[in-house]
Amino acid sequence: MSSTIESDNKPVEISIVGGGIIGLVLTLGLIKRNITVKVYEQAKSLREIGAGVAFTANAIRCMGMINPGIVEALRAVATANGDADDPNDWLQWVDGYNQHTENPYDEKLLFKLYAGYRGFEGCHRAHFLDQLAKIVPKGVVEFNKRLDSISQTGSEDKMVLKFTDGTSAEADAVIGCDGIKSRVRQVILGNDNPASHPHYTHKFAYRGLIPMNKAVEVMGEYKARNQHMHVGPKAHVLHFPVAGQTLMNFVAFVTDPNDWAFEKTMVAPATRVEVQRDFANFGPTVRDITSLLPDTIDKWAIFDSFDYPAPYYNKGRVCLAGDAAHASSPHHGAGAGIGVEDALCLSTVMELVVEACQGNKTSKSQALSLAFEAFNAVRRERSQWLVNSSRSICEVYEWADPVTGNDSEKCFKEIEWRSHKIWNFDIEGMLKDTTADYEKRLDASYSKN
Ligand SMILES: Cc1cc2nc3c(=O)[nH]c(=O)nc-3n(C[C@H](O)[C@H](O)[C@H](O)COP(=O)(O)OP(=O)(O)OC[C@H]3O[C@@H](n4cnc5c(N)ncnc54)[C@H](O)[C@@H]3O)c2cc1C
Asked: Cα(396) to centroid of ligand 1, in Å?
């Protein structure tokens, strides 16, 4: 550490593009570390579309390390699986297709997997986002700001964000948390790069929320109030309780040999009749659940970044996190969770940037670029693995994997090791690696100066 570089002594200012789950979680991480942050969100208010979301153990631990307020926000709206006084910490897979006993409603339990204490709790997405919004200080999020471009042309070496309404803003660095169709990713990789755009996985999902009392009537108390995955050939149904057990979150995945017909949007209208048609060959339990859906329902195309993964997550002082970096299909129920890990990694390395700048060890712009390089080096492998594994595990659920077929024991082994890799993540190891990688880059930059 030889030379000392003049820093401008002004606080580091970070802009986040996108106020979804990851944008807000990262914001709360930066605020907790006294870093100045501004969020630019294209919508006119914070809102989540979609139905339920569940966070696995790794994500909840990271939330606590980012900002304990996030865990409180989650706990305020999370719904215990089964009995709130004695939560069911097991995930269950049942045969939704074949009849195994005289009673056709008696779905065979294929296997179950222990998720850890309160290791699986679902919530209504909008409720969680509302809770997060409550703890983000007023004025931090600016609405109706749809990012168009980013350039390095600002005063004092700042990055300039231009929005489609003609306005602009400046910051020392920009983090794109703008989701699967990220504009920031296009800025980093170029519009023509196929990795700038997500691709269809040839699966879509019918999603909806079913009143719990209706679900209980049809499925019985236990099945309705506890998570179940009903598997079968080329399709499967997942449900879990949300909203304090007043609603059952329903997702039904279907394999689609065709291209997605709705070019401009990933969500299209569908009908209950279509769902019933797609699950007509499943057992009566699954068919009965589909009968509870309203006449019209949303159908979500599952896109991801599997075919063309982003080759890097940052360019200089512009970086990607969450789905913007590594959009995954949802079959591990961990896409947002892995984004939360990103947020912890970034919050931690941003704190190191501030320390380096305060000590006049380096220029702000260099410290920020190196921090994003460290983030890229540490986070790419695991987050891209999730994208790949999520594709593979769906094939296992749907008896389409050539190795596991419909052999329950083989399917279970595959699901078990992959789930454990996600849930039992070495978070402290990630932070150690991030710090070491960043400091190594910083040291190397000193010797060049
Ligand atoms: C069916 C389904 C079920 C899922 N279930 C789970 C689950 O149970 N558990 C789990 O961990 N994950 C789950 N996921 C994945 C999870 O939903 C995503 O990983 C997560 O929502 C990504 O959050 P994000 O903040 O990165 O992006 P988003 O939630 O997409 O947020 C992006 C934000 O950026 C804004 N934005 C976009 N473009 C611009 C722009 N140009 N300028 C300004 N703002 C912009 C958007 O308006 C939005 O607010 C599921 C996904 C699907 C499809």
From this structure: 25
344 or 102, higher pLDDT: 344
- Structural domain boundaries in the chain: 13-81+120-198+306-448, 200-304
Dihedral over Cα of 303, 261, 299, 25: its sign: positive
Mean per-residue pLDDT of the chain = 94
Q: Who's near 90: CB < 8 A, 6+ residues apart?
A: 112, 113, 114, 115
Q: Same topology for domains 13-81+120-198+306-448 and 200-304, yes or no?
A: no
Q: Is the pLDDT of residue 253 over 50?
A: yes
Residues with C-beta less than 6 Å from any ligand 1 atom: 17-23, 40-43, 53-55, 145-147, 177-180, 183, 205, 207, 251, 300, 322-324, 330, 333-337, 339
Instruction: Judge: domain 200-304, CATH 3.20.20.100.
Output: no
Q: Which CATH class is domain 13-81+120-198+306-448?
A: alpha beta
Alpha carbons 91 and 83: distance in angstroms, whole number: 14
* Atom 30 of ligand 1: nearest residue by CA position: 179
Residue 449 has pLDDT above 70, yes or no: no
Whether residue 207 lies in the annotated active site: yes
Query: Which residue has the least CA distance to atom 48 on ligand 1?
Result: 20
Distance 198 CA to ligand 1 centre (A): 13
Rounded distance between C-alpha atoms, residue 19 and residue 323, angstroms? 12
- Other C-beta atoms closer than 10 Å to the C-beta of 417 total 10
366-388 pLDDT, tens digit per residue, is 999 999 999 999 999 999 999 99
The two structure tokens encoding residue 241: 């309780």
Among 61, 183, 185, 207, the one annotated catalytic:
207
Stretch 87-95: mean pLDDT, rounded?
A: 95
Of the chain, the end-to-end C-alpha distance in Å amounts to 10
To test the pocket of ligand 1, the residue of 48, 61, 130, 178 to mutate (highest count of ligand atoms within 8 Å of its CB) is: 178
For residue 84, the model assigns a pLDDT of 87
Model confidence at 233: pLDDT above 90: yes
